[in-house]
Amino acid sequence: xxxxxxxxxxxxxxxxxxxxxxxxxxxxxxxxxxxxxxxxxxxxxxxxxxxxxxxxxxxxxxxxxxxxxxxxxxxxxxxxxxxxxxxxxxxxxxxxxxxxxxxxxxxxxxxxxxxxxxxxxxxxxxxxxxxxxxxxxxxxxxxxxxxxxxxxxxxxxxxxxxxxxxxxxxxxxxxxxxxxxxxxxxxxxxxxxxxxxxxxxxxxxxxxxxxxxxxxxxxxxxxxxxxxxxxxxxxxxxxxxxxxxxxxxxxxxxxxxxxxxxxxxxxxxxxxxxxxxxxxxxxxxxxxxxxxxxxxxxxxxxxxxxxxxxxxxxxxxxxxxxxxxxxxxxxxxxxxxxxx
Length: 340
What we know:
Layout: E1 32-37, E2 42-47, H1 51-54, E3 59-63, E4 65-67, E5 71-76, E6 81-89, E7 94-99, E8 108-110, E9 115-122, E10 128-134, E11 137-138, H2 141-151, H3 168-171, E12 179-182, H4 194-200, E13 206-211, E14 234-237, H5 240-247, E15 252-255, H6 257-269, E16 273-276, E17 291-295, H7 302-311, H8 313-325, E18 336-339
Parallel strand pairs: 1-18, 3-13, 3-15, 4-12, 15-17
Antiparallel strand pairs: 1-2, 5-6, 5-8, 6-7, 7-10, 8-9, 9-10, 10-11, 13-14, 14-16, 17-18
Helix pairs in contact: 7-8
């Protein structure tokens, strides 16, 4: 028999549209930070520049993935406009993508710089497998990503209701973004600047892993019973020093849900690279990571369910209610929350 915590409707809330951030707070350290101290059951309202003052003794892990300009605008052979959003590389130099409008297997979409996409397969989950060529040559992931830096657009989330601009090229990229492959930013990392990292390094070890965030991160849970949800997969890689940290007993602060899922994937499987499909929720709680810094997430999303895996459903909804009352900014360019 399903309980309230099983039901998708229990993870819903109303967010006034004016609280959806369409641009980040600048300077970054002035963004607001809601801190929930579990031991005292207490909420603090700070700014990111205060983070080092309240953090307990811990090692910190960031995601060093780099966001690709994954949104490309082109035309079908019929002349109609089309748009592709890259999702993730597949085998045999094919790519999982989302395409606006109807296409068939064999459909051709043309872009600038002689880039051509051919639809190879159509899947029930809304994605399509395509092959990209330029001047007759099939492109691998590295070649395609390089080309998209010239002709692609920053893949802003669907709830940011404006076109991307030049500022988004830096706003929607962390300062330590290194390895191309993400089509959505690990947004908790966007709050950090060089000075904050320098301050944190005085008392905390800084570590990295890579998880290439896919477009599936924005996909709503559709199963009425959340445990029936099939989690999307994303490629991850964890370097040796970060593996050693996870295998130790040192307290860990994960910067964002992507780091958290990687840490917990490795804690369970001991596999350092592959596809992460881990769905953290009230029925699958963290076994290794101690603390979480994250943004405020969409209702009915796997991300808000991940937050409940740390502090429970009632407390999560109470905190979100407080954040709305205090007019925190939500989602990718919004403010953050820290669970210690």
